[in-house]
Amino acid sequence: MSRALRVGLSTCPNDTFLFHALLSGEVTAPLELEFVLADVEELNERMLRGELELSKVSAHALLALAERTWVLHCGAALGFGVGPLLLAAPGRASELPLAHAAHVLTPGRWTTAALLLELLELAPRARLEHTVFADILPRLAAGGADYGACIHEARFTWRAHGVGFVADLGQRFEQRAGGALALGGLCVAQSVGRPTALALQRAVRASLEWGLAHRSACLPTMRRHAQEQADEVLWAHVELYVNEWTLDLGPVGRAALSALMRLAREHGVVAARGELELL
Asked: Bridge partners of 55?
């Protein structure tokens, strides 16, 4: 491929931490890379349209991309106690399932948060509105919607907005599936060929290892792109979403992806054909 390979990553602290060494040149890849930083739903949509060669995407999008991408062993966001929170505007009831015609904000059609609402059958008659994740908490606090599935930094800051807690979607999934929740991962288009894909995986792994060995050096990049600027929130985000399964999916990570695929198929959310294939 003669042009630069387009690599998508979200602006969230765990991704900018992961990619800092590649972004800053501390680690180099044997390929020309063009980095695209965007909201995760934009990355989902661009990868689905074939506009990126490698990208971080939501686990929901991973399922939809199963037939034309490989999942990297490194770079995933998954684990226990890491899931989205379903929160309520002030004065709204916290009973589940949500009331008929409740107005619910999600961070995007292809996000795992939206998928979990469907798989867990928590809002079967709700009116879903997909919006940028950073807008959900402010709109809830202002009464601009009834409920919202909140992700990323909102998991750490929601109490300051005066909203109410309804459910931890990740915890409910763990109880249902009997294992970890896969929130997202890195996938590479099979069209680049396996040798190129493996080279990209090695570069990503090297970037993550560099970040883990030089944590404080990653902070300026994390600050530059984060929605929440408090350093303690940025590091709490990294501590939660960059873990042993980010370095390597291992059996726990593979089982988490399989469980999500199985439940999505049972609910008719993804086609019966196609399996997630690790690189």
From this structure: 8, 187
Strand boundaries in 59-146, DSSP class E: 69-71, 77-79, 85-88, 103-106, 127-130
Question: Which residue type occupies 82?
Answer: V
> Is this model's pTM higher than 0.90 or not?
yes
**pLDDT for res 233:** 87
- How far, in Å, CA of 8 to CA of 264, rounded? 25
Q: What is the pLDDT of residues 3-34, one digit of tens each?
A: 899 999 999 999 999 999 999 999 999 999 99
Catalytic, 214? Answer no
Inter-residue contact 244 to 250 (CB < 8 Å): yes
Beta bridge partners of 213: none
Show the tokens assigned to 252. Answer: 């726990």
Q: Residues 103, 152, 214, 225: which is the catalytic one?
A: 152
| All domains in the chain, ordered by first residue | 5-79+181-266 (3.40.190.10), 85-177 (3.40.190.10)
